[in-house]
Amino acid sequence: MRFDDLPTPCYVVDESLLERNLKILGGIMERTGAKIILAQKAFSMYTTYPLIGKYLSGTAASGLYEARLGHEEMGKENHVFAPAYRDDQMDEIVELCDHVIFNSFSQVEKYRDKVLAAGKKIGLRINPECSTQVGHDIYNPCAIGSRFGVTIGQFRPELMEGVSGFHFHTLCQQDSDDLATTLDAIEEKFGPWLSELEWINFGGGHHITREDYNIPLLEQCIKRMQEKYGLEVYLEPGEAVALNAGFLITTVLDTMQNGMDIAIVDASASCHMPDVLEMPYRPPLLGSGEPGEKTHTYRLGGPTCLSGDNIGDYSFDQPLKPGDRLVFGDMAIYSMVKNTTFNGMPLPALVYQDKNGDCEVIHAFGYEDFKMRLA
Asked: Which residues cross the membrane (predicted)?
């Protein structure tokens, strides 16, 4: 099947674009000796895990189910972090994961013996209280009142027994200059303990495969921790792995007018691209322009009952009409992992496009996928 023949709505992940990102990440690993693992919370299309596993060192999980997925489908290093763990899941998590990262010393005390008895590594998430983001506090782990990580004020050196590494995650779609600033704060606050550890995990949020990302500075940051403290360095990007490697294809269902031209499409911002509303942001749309840039400007909206289910305003050279196909870019990340069936919306099919341009529908969803989540 070719791209133009695919049913809509559907997510398409392009093998060539995905591998482009992986080669960039693999090059960093080769030059620095750091290990990069896939943060599955951003991208979990496990059909691609054999390809990802050729380049990266493993997976990062946010709980039991992601830990199982990484273990079963990639089978390499498997790290897990959660703000708190459930007693009834801990035995399986310890069995599946190589690194178990805790969010507090109370969790370390509770599960330390279990993790060490299994021969696994214990990590502690620290909070350097260094906010490098502007706006979007929903994505700022260093905001006041954040539930993520141990601050220096809550640090308990006497409870560090068995802890072999630090983990921090403070970035969101940011460049390496913010990472360097964060490392300054970590050294200032937690420096005395760094040389006593085996490893450090820089977390995610690094936009490494973005065209203008400063890779040389990232590599300097990695080497800084290696050479100064003798630490093994991990990074766990999610977006960077599949950035700009996927698309969401949708079809225009109808057009209308209410103070401006409106087009209803068969994809929903609320259901199928939730970060459009949560971040919020305006996703790229192939062949379109900014509002007013081209002759015909439309507000694109989804088919749900939510009044705010709007994808954004775009302009086109020609008027839109029912049956027109629109292709949104950068739709591999935080899309299929966060989508919903609100309003009974069908989930988009999952499609893999190989290097020859041939497309395979990996999974198509139907009514039963909606019904099975209810009772």
From this structure: none
